[in-house]
Write a structure and sequence with these properties.
CATH architecture of the largest domain: 3-Layer(aba) Sandwich
Shape: elongated
Number of helices: 18
Strand content: 15-25%
Structural class: alpha/beta
Largest sheet: 5 strands, parallel
CATH class of the largest domain: Alpha Beta
Helix content: 25-40%
Number of strands: 22
CATH topology of the largest domain: Rossmann fold
Radius of gyration: 28 Å
Strand order of the largest sheet: 3-2-6-1-7
C-alpha cells in the first residue's frame, strides 16, 4: 500500500510561523525530508520513531541533487510511509515543490500541499517593511535570482519599469548585477533597497541603501546568503515598523538547561522577547511515586496536618499518585498546604487546591522561617520532594515535630535535544550569550555533560537563586547574575537587565 507525501512550507525561518496543519504533518510523519532553511526547532515536534533525512542545499554545495531528493521521497512513500517534505518558505514559491509533486503523482503517490509563509512577505515584515503600502506600492513582484540555465536573462527593461515592490529571492550572488541592470534600464539610482539576511531568525541582519550603493554596504556589513533583496519605496517604512529587531532580547542566545517537560515556560518567555532559547535538558525527572513505601504513606495522608511542596514536580507526582490510588482532595481537608513559591502554588491550583502558605523567600529557609513559630510537637508534616533535595528543611523541622519525607522523584542526567558536542562547540565559540541554571542539578549535570567547567567561562552564567549559586561556586563557576526573585520571571528580569 502506497503512503502519502505532504509538501509542507515551514515558513521563512521563525519556527512559530509554520501553519497548524504543517505542524500536524510533522507530528504525524513516519519520515521527514527537510531543507537547511527549515528551523531545526520544528524537528523536536516529531515522533521518537520518525526518520529524519537531511537534503539541504547551499550555493554550490548540495548534499543531494534534486533527482536524488525526488527518488528518496518517492521510495519512502511507496514503502507505505507518511512522508513530510519540509521546505523553507512556501513549497510553490521557488521551492521546486511543483517539480517534486509532479514527479510523485506520475508514479502514483498521493500528494498534498500545505502552503507556508514565503520569505518574500514574512521576511520583509520582520525587517519592518510592508510589501505593499497605499502611499508607496500597490503591487509586488517576486523574482528568482537563480535561473534554471546560466544563459537565461531576466527582462530587465520590463522589471525596471514596474511600479510595485520588487523582491529577489536567492539573488545575493547577483546583487551587483541586479542593481546595475535596474539602473541601466531606467530605474533611479537612489531607489531604496534592503537586503535581509537570515530573515525572521535570531541571525537576521538588514542592510539598507540604494541601488547605487547597496552592494558596497552589504560587503562592508558582511551579509551573504541566504538573503532576500527588496527594491522600492516601501523600504522607507523600516524605520517606524521595525518591531523584530527592537525586542528586548533580540539577537541573544540563551541555553535553557531545565528538564524537557518544564523548559517550554522559560523558552517561550525568552522567545517572546526576541531571544533564541536553545533547549538542552541536563536533567530528566524519574518518577518514584509508585514505590510501595511511598504508596503506603500516601494512603495515610489524612494523618498529616501540614503538607509542604518544594517543586512543581513534587506536586504533580504526589497528586497524580493520589488520584491513581482512588483518593480525592477531601483527604487533605484538615491539612495546611505550603508551597515554596508562586510557580509551585500555581501547580497546586491545577488540582483545585490553594496553597495556604507561600514564603517571601522561595527557598527551604524561607519555608522554615514561616513555620518555626506556628508548629508544635503535635504537628505532623509530609514533604513530597526530590531524592536529591537538601536536608536542611527536614532536619530543622524534625527538631519541632514529626516530619516524613517522601522521595517521589529523582533527577537523572538529561538527554539533550542537540548533541553534547554541538552545545560544547557553541559555548567554546562564544555563540551562546547566557546559560541559565534553575537548580543545583542543572549545574552539576551540565558540567558532567560538557566535561570541562572552564569552557563555561565563555558564556554569562545566570542563577535562579542562592542555593544554585552556591553549587556553581563550589564547582568553580562564576555567577554572572543571580535572580532577585527565585523563579522563572526572576531569570527573565536578569536577562532583560543584562541586555539593557
Amino acid at each position: 500500500m502506497s503512503g502519502k507525501v505532504f509538501l509542507v512550507g515551514a515558513g521563512p525561518g521563525d519556527y512559530k510561523l509554520i501553519t497548524m496543519k504543517g505542524l500536524e504533518c510533522i507530528k504525524d510523519a513516519d519520515v521527514i525530508v527537510y531543507d537547511r532553511l527549515a528551523s531545526p526547532k520544528l524537528l523536536t515536534y516529531k515522533r521518537n520513531e520518525c526518520e529524519l533525512i537531511y537534503v539541504g542545499k547551499e550555493s554550490s554545495n548540495h548534499t543531494k541533487t534534486q533527482d536524488e531528493i525526488n527518488e528518496i521521497i518517492c521510495e519512502k512513500a511507496l514503502e507505505g510511509k507518511i512522508v513530510t517534505r519540509l521546505k523553507g518558505g512556501d513549497p510553490y514559491v521557488f521551492g521546486r515543490g511543483g517539480e517534486e509533486g509532479q514527479y510523485l503523482i506520475d508514479r502514483g503517490v498521493d500528494v498534498e500541499v500545505i502552503p507556508g509563509i514565503t520569505s518574500a512577505i514574512g521576511g520583509l515584515a520582520y525587517a519592518g517593511i510592508p510589501i505593499t503600502h497605499r502611499d508607496y506600492a500597490s503591487s509586488f513582484h517576486v523574482i528568482t535570482g537563480h535561473l534554471k540555465e546560466e544563459n537565461q536573462e531576466l527582462n530587465w527593461e520590463v522589471l525596471a519599469k514596474l511600479k510595485g515592490t520588487l523582491v529577489f529571492l536567492m539573488g545575493m550572488s547577483e546583487l551587483k548585477n541586479i542593481s546595475a541592470n535596474l539602473i541601466g534600464n531606467g530605474m533611479k539610482a537612489n531607489t531604496p533597497v534592503a537586503v535581509i539576511n537570515w530573515a525572521t531568525t535570531e541571525r537576521q541582519k538588514v542592510a539598507v541603501g540604494t541601488l547605487d550603493d547597496i552592494y558596497d554596504i552589504t560587503l562592508r556589513e558582511g551579509l551573504s546568503s541566504p538573503s532576500l533583496i527588496a527594491v522600492g519605496d516601501v523600504v522607507k517604512m523600516r524605520g517606524s515598523l521595525n518591531f523584530f529587531e527592537n525586542k528586548l532580547l533580540n539577537g541573544k542566545k540563551v541555553l535553557v538547561t531545565r528538564a524537557r517537560a518544564q523548559s517550554s515556560t522559560l523558552s517561550d518567555k525568552i522567545y517572546n522577547l526576541g531571544g533564541t532559547p536553545i533547549e538542552f535538558p541536563t536533567i530528566k525527572i524519574e518518577d518514584l511515586s509508585e514505590e510501595k513505601s511511598i504508596t503506603d504513606e500516601i494512603m495515610k495522608v489524612k494523618e498529616y496536618n501540614y503538607i509542604i511542596f518544594t517543586s512543581q514536580n513534587g506536586v504533580k507526582l504526589f497528586f497524580n499518585r493520589m488520584i491513581d490510588l482512588g483518593l480525592d482532595m477531601r483527604q487533605l481537608a484538615n491539612a495546611t498546604i505550603v508551597a515554596i513559591g508562586n510557580v509551585t502554588a500555581q501547580e497546586i491550583k491545577k488540582y483545585n487546591l490553594i496553597a495556604d502558605i507561600v514564603p517571601k523567600k522561595y527557598i527551604a529557609e524561607g519555608i522554615y522561617e514561616e513555620l518555626e513559630n506556628r508548629l508544635s510537637s503535635d504537628d505532623k508534616i509530609l514533604i513530597p520532594r526530590a531524592k536529591e533535595s537538601r536536608d536542611f528543611l527536614v532536619d530543622e523541622l524534625n527538631k519541632i515535630c514529626f516530619v516524613k519525607e517522601l522521595k517521589v522523584y529523582q533527577t537523572v542526567l538529561g538527554e539533550g535535544i542537540q548533541s553534547q558536542d554541538n552545545i560544547k562547540k557553541m559555548i567554546m565559540n562564544k555563540e551562546i550569550d547566557y546559560i541559565t541554571f534553575t537548580s543545583s542539578s542543572t549545574v552539576k549535570n551540565l558540567v558532567k555533560m560538557i566535561g570541562d567547567p572552564e569552557i563555561l567561562k565563555n558564556s554569562h552564567l545566570i542563577s535562579i537563586g542562592p542555593i544554585t549559586s552556591k553549587t556553581m561556586m563550589e564547582l568553580g563557576l562564576e555567577v554572572y547574575r543571580e535572580a532577585e526573585d527565585y523563579d522563572i520571571d526572576g531569570i527573565i528580569k536578569v536577562l532583560v537587565d543584562c541586555k539593557g
